[in-house]
Automatic annotation (TrEMBL):
Ranges for domain Aminoglycoside phosphotransferase: 42-203
Biological source species: Sphaerisporangium rhizosphaerae
Position of the signal peptide: none
The protein's name: Phosphotransferase
InterPro entries: Aminoglycoside_PTrfase (IPR002575), Kinase-like_dom_sf (IPR011009)
SUPFAM superfamilies: Protein kinase-like (PK-like)
């Protein structure tokens, strides 16, 4: 057996890989409850749950490789991106999970607070925050709830050739806006939005997807900074915000 690989670690949770087993340690077991239940419900491939002994959840590794990494060009084919779009459509058409999602009012309130923090602490220029706050407005509209993954970033979608082999990290799954998932999937990979939409099908308002790019980035920066990540790296959240200027 090879050594232990630390996949991700911060003050809320950590994921370790030991051979073909991933060990997820989470201080909040409600997130793990959601993850396990969501994986049992969704109509797309997910990792096999090997065992659970709180605070640890053991999952089998998925075949294939991640669709991409934020901040780096994706080597996946257009067909793989389209397959990710098609898998996302299957998820969004599934029956809703029984637990609640975030409300529009909650998201808008949090956005106001994060924008104030970014400007008040000198993290970002006021004009950059103001412009992206304006772009984000298009996402703050009523939506018909869909079963969303909630954190469908490229590193959470695994592919082999043009086939999706599985999707990981379901702790944010909930009823929500379908276009949010599409935005997170293509965040920092705008050049693949057309491929994803081709696989997903109809009902995609590209202006709303772009609005979610701004909103997601504005909401994420403080958490990233406070947990030891760098949103200013090339191609990451701050570059996403600058691209909207």
């Amino acid at each position: 057996m090879e050594g232990i690989e630390v996949v991700v670690a911060h003050k809320e949770r950590a994921t370790l890989r030991v051979g073909d087993v991933f060990l997820k340690v989470d201080v909040d077991q409600t997130r793990t409850d959601v993850e396990v239940e969501a994986m049992a419900m969704v109509p797309i491939p997910t990792p096999e749950v090997l065992w659970r002994k709180p605070p640890v959840l053991a999952l089998a590794a998925l075949p294939g490789t991640a669709l991409g990494v934020l901040g780096e060009p994706s080597t996946a084919s257009p067909g793989a991106w389209a397959a990710a779009g098609a898998a996302t459509r299957l998820l969004h058409e599934a029956p809703l999970p029984p637990w609640p999602g975030r409300s529009l009012d909650d998201i808008a309130s949090r956005l106001d607070g994060e924008c104030a923090w970014l400007v008040g602490n000198g993290v970002l220029p006021a004009d950059l925050v103001t412009q992206n706050r304006r772009v984000a407005e298009a996402a703050l509209r009523p939506w018909t709830p869909a079963f969303i993954h909630g954190d469908l970033q490229v590193g959470h979608v695994f592919v082999d050739g043009d086939e999706v082999t599985g999707v990981i990290d379901w702790s944010e799954a909930a009823p929500g806006d379908a276009l949010y998932d599409l935005a997170v999937l293509t965040l920092g990979h705008e050049e693949h939005l057309g491929d994803v939409v081709a696989g997903y099908g109809t009902g995609v308002d590209l202006d709303v997807v772009r609005a979610w790019w701004s909103l997601r980035s504005l909401l994420a920066i403080r958490w990233l900074v406070e947990n030891g990540f760098d949103p200013s790296l090339p191609g990451c959240e701050i570059d996403v915000l600058r691209a909207r200027m």
